[in-house]
User: Which sequence fits this backbone?
């Protein structure tokens, strides 16, 4: 079944369900009785998937993100499976129940079937943070059990669910025990700091649905996870922090205090690059494209991403090995001199981490520290201006954020940070790549999403677009532009030639038309953004080598166009 047909059925079904739910709700009145309970079992997934069944093995419990307690459901659609997770609950006939759950991620549905009256469903197309879905149903005269469910949507990213409630009369099966006031959080620790922020983390408390952060004795934040960043602080100043845990039963005592001291002049600003910039990846290997020295890269490129760093035996650690043999005897000394010359000419040269075969993993505090230390060491040794994150096998937003903020505190405000996620990584602000970009927005230079090697994707208007057109570029860029990134942090990543990618190549004319559409509101396709983004950063290509193989046709056409944007 193609995606268009599936989308039409979904929209029609959602409308019918919404209408059906509305009609049911109009006939419901009254308040909950004293005996009403949550009849769902393992409602917070604290016991793994006990009492729950997920289709095609799509469900798992995770420790982050969670809405309450220590666990939540993560369900991943794949192929023809929409990651449906169900539980059959005991209910009383002729009774009213309120069904609710906290969800996060891409398309997420919550519903009940087998009610004996009108089955109900509700959904959300996207939620960057935890959002509560809620609906109500009435059981039939002989109904003693109902199936409640969550599910996502075909081909979309995973969704998360937590703290499910089916609140109404006890149908004989009982429910989870009532919550008690959670314990005091332990392990409060200071993470990375800048001149205006302090990152903090602590151990998860069982039974907690949230946490309060206290700064110098005053409550400043309420968060759902076991970490927070205090912002708006003064440079070179010490602050006292405490944290408490909360749930429906109340708030715990405050933790022991820790002190965080801001730096005198921390990182930030995303480095110094032109208002409109062209990024090109330089290949440290020979795959049939033109072999280049850094000095061979044309002046139309403002940011040169050296591809790639190599993983070391230390978790999170990276190093760089120049492929002198593959590059015709290019020496380390020549390479360093060429990097210095490009920087003297006003260009930025950065080290790229990842690529299609990249194996660098940053999934805990130790690997985040190792990453920051090793990248900074490469910057000092080779003169790199910063780092590019091109981890195509996924990343952890919490620890990648920690790593990049730590690097920023070492490198200062001149640090250049770029990212090259795949299209699927930027469909929702709940995706790890998108979350990372938003987490480091104050120090991020540009996100050059790869608009190639991609299947069809949703645009910001909810329509499906296929790669290879102006609309694919503009409608998908709109998600980032309206999802929290500044226009100066958004670039269009395309292959320099048909040899540069398996699919998705478009002519430089299409690239330039897309840039015009976003920055000026001209040369658009069928999709026209609701506003223009004159400060759009520019474009990126893989690679300078494939560009050279085609006589630099891409950079000769796109480079001047980018530099001529308003």
Assistant:
């Amino acid at each position: 079944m193609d995606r268009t047909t599936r989308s039409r059925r979904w929209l029609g079904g959602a409308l019918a369900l919404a209408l059906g739910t509305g009609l049911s709700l109009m006939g419901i009145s009254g308040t909950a009785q004293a005996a009403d309970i949550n009849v769902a079992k393992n409602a917070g997934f604290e016991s793994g998937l006990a009492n729950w069944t997920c289709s095609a093995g799509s469900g798992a419990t995770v420790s982050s993100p969670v809405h309450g307690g220590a666990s939540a459901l993560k369900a991943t659609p794949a192929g023809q499976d929409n990651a449906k997770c169900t539980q059959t609950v005991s209910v009383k006939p002729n009774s009213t129940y309120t069904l609710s759950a906290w969800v996060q991620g891409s398309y997420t549905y919550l519903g009940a079937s087998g009610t004996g009256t009108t089955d109900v469903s509700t959904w959300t197309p996207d939620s960057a943070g935890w959002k509560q879905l809620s609906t109500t149903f009435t059981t039939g005269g002989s109904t003693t059990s109902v199936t409640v469910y969550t599910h996502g949507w075909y081909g979309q990213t995973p969704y998360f669910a937590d703290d499910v409630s089916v609140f109404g009369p006890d149908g004989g099966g009982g429910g989870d025990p009532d919550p008690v006031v959670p314990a005091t959080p332990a392990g409060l620790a200071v993470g990375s700091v800048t001149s205006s922020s302090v990152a903090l983390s602590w151990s998860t408390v069982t039974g907690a649905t949230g946490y309060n952060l206290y700064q110098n004795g005053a409550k400043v934040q309420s968060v759902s996870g076991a970490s927070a960043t205090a912002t708006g602080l003064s440079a070179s100043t010490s602050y006292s922090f405490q944290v408490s845990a909360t749930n429906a039963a109340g708030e715990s005592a405050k933790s022991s205090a820790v002190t965080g001291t801001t730096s005198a002049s921390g990182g930030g600003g995303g480095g110094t690059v032109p208002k409109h910039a062209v990024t090109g990846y330089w290949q440290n290997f020979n795959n049939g494209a033109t072999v280049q020295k850094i000095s061979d890269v044309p002046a139309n490129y403002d940011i040169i991403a050296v591809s790639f760093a190599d993983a070391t035996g230390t978790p999170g650690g990276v190093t760089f090995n120049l492929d002198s043999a593959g590059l015709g005897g290019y020496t380390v000394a020549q390479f360093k001199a060429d990097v210095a010359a490009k920087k003297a000419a006003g260009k930025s040269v950065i080290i790229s981490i990842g690529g299609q075969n990249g194996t660098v993993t940053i999934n805990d505090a130790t690997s985040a520290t190792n990453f920051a230390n090793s990248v900074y060491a490469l910057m000092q040794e080779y003169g790199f201006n910063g780092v590019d994150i091109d981890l195509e096998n996924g990343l952890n937003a919490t620890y990648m954020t920690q790593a990049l903020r730590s690097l920023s505190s070492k490198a200062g405000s001149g640090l250049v940070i770029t990212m090259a996620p795949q299209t699927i990584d930027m469909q929702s602000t709940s995706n790890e790549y998108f979350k990372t970009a938003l987490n480091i927005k104050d120090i991020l230079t540009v996100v050059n999403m790869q608009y190639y090697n991609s299947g069809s994707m949703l645009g910001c208007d909810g329509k499906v677009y296929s790669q290879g057109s102006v609309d694919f570029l503009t409608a998908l860029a709109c998600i980032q532009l309206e999802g929290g990134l500044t226009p100066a942090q958004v670039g269009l990543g395309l292959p320099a030639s048909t040899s540069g990618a398996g699919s998705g190549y478009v002519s430089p004319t299409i690239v330039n038309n897309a840039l015009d559409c976003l920055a000026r509101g001209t040369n658009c396709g069928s999709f026209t953004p609701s506003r223009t983004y004159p400060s759009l950063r520019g474009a990126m290509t893989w690679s300078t080598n494939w560009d050279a193989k085609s006589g630099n046709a891409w950079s000769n056409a796109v480079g001047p166009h980018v530099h001529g944007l308003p």
Q: What stands out?
A: The chain has nine helices and 31 strands. Residues 1-34, 265-269 have pLDDT under 50 and may be disordered.
